[in-house]
């Protein structure tokens, strides 16, 4: 090809009087992200149908009454009925008691187990699997296993007590031990996830900090208090809030272990009371009102969790 036939730079330039068609920035972005938008639409629809719509419907039901197939606005009467129900305050006391006990066991124990696992240099993978194994079991199977353990006649725990010379306990039949028994079962079932989160945070701590603490003469407890805890403070705060949100919604464990209410209502939680309102008393307005109270409270903790998560990303 001769040099005269090659297009020159001047020939490829547009004429000064002509304008090339321009696409809007929105159209270019839409074409570029069309596949991502398709996946997002499915997720948004799922959230809208299974999460957002139930919340909006619950809010409306909290201010409505249904009688003889007719729905009417009830104003604040459902909330007034719930607040004047003695079971409401008992359920909140039991829920707060469960949350407190679950935080003592389910928040502190996984952290200590993670610290212990972090000290092992060999076989740590098998130990992680062993700790996480209860989480992989179906919750119903785990609860029924503990129900067998708690049996006052042939249960494993009372057999161990007999070998140790201790008196047998009415684990689920006594008002003094029913809630603690539920907390022990729930802690065993759920502590694996928290332990692995703490272990991942511990493995991110630089070893130089522990070496400097040893040079200063710090023992094991001082290293945990002055190095481990400050370095994992944000993770501990996030897990603390997550456990509060999770434990205040407890339902499966007391429902299967103590038939929900327990002896003298000692294991009746807020979520189980919502279940009673809706399916035992057919009071859907009262159930929605109680759920709205729980929703507002947990929304506050969720906002704190989002704030801490945003700080951790920064």
Automatic annotation (TrEMBL):
Keyword set includes Transmembrane helix: yes
Limits of the ABC transmembrane type-1 domain: 92-305
Keyword Cell membrane listed: yes
Region (Disordered): 1-22
Ranges annotated as spanning the membrane: 34-53, 96-117, 129-150, 170-189, 232-251, 284-306
Membrane topology: Multi-pass membrane protein
Pfam families associated with the record: BPD_transp_1 (PF00528)
PROSITE patterns named among the record's database cross-references: ABC_TM1 (PS50928)
Keywords assigned: Cell membrane, Membrane, Transmembrane, Transmembrane helix, Transport
UniProt-annotated location(s): Cell membrane
Family: Belongs to the binding-protein-dependent transport system permease family.
Protein name per its UniProtKB record: Sugar ABC transporter permease
Record organism: Streptomyces xanthochromogenes
